[in-house]
Amino acid sequence: MNLISIPAFQDNYIWLLCDSQRHCVIVDPGEANPVLEALSDLNLTPDAILLTHRHRDHVAGVPDIISRYPGLAVYGPHETANKGANHLLSAGDTLNIGGRQFTVIAVPGHTLEHIAFYSSPYLFCGDTIFSAGCGRLFEGTAEQMYDSFQRLAQLPDETLICCAHEYTLSNLKFASKILPRDDQIRTYQEQVEILRVKGEPSVPTTLQLERKINLFLRCHDTDLQKEIGFDSPPAHLHEVFSELRLRKDAF
Fold it and tell me: 143, 170, 232, 233: least CB-packed within 10 angstroms?
């Protein structure tokens, strides 16, 4: 398989997952033109579109792509029914596209019906988990997003997190402010700064790496808890997640 990231808008990524026969799936096409250009330039045939949630910067390109490829299957959660999805999905559903199986994982938080698509080792998670961060809570609660993170944390270390935005450096700056003496975060921030100066993407990332540098996956860390004001262990770890998200919102 070949994974291709297509930059869109200011900091979005649209993903193409391609097989050896030059067929592909398109994930979260917020814009049509960059996708259509990539399909033409690389001589690719789309088999389906996958939508993680209903926000415009993830779905706005669907109509123009469909007009170019009539009858193309568009899979998404129920909240995307009026955004072009013609196959509606729920948690636990499985898809077989071009001989490759995808599992649907419910990840509410950013939106209430947000889903992720997992086909080992690829995780297309939209605006749920970012490298070193998490999505904003536009509709759901911190507890819901914490539970979504725990669901994704059950996946193997080698899982490739294909998130939809280039937020890594900002997230690492926040993490460094919270844990300024954390060598893993500081070292990785230096590496990402070099990548971004070169104009190179910082994603996909691995779940193994995220366990180390993503504070939202480290709510169990007692040192982190103390740094953000928990003098005693919290009754529920989603309280730590909530405090981190509030601080990130104000960062």
Answer: 232
Residues 6+ positions from 158 with CB-CB distance below 8 Å: 121, 206, 207, 208
Give the pLDDT score at 20. Answer: 87
Spatial separation of the C-alpha atoms in residues 149 and 114, rounded to whole Å: 12
In this model, does residue 191 exceed pLDDT 90? Answer: yes
- Alpha-carbon distance values, 245 to 126, 131, 168, 177, 211 (Å): 17, 15, 15, 14, 17
Closest CA to 241 of 170, 157, 196, 178: 178
Long-range contact pairs involving 166-169 (C-beta distance under 8 Å, separation at least 24): 166/7, 166/11, 166/12, 166/13, 166/201, 166/202, 166/203, 167/11, 167/130, 167/131, 167/132, 167/133, 168/130, 168/131, 168/132, 168/133, 168/192, 168/202, 168/203, 168/205, 169/193, 169/196, 169/202
The tokens 């509030």 sit on which residue? 246
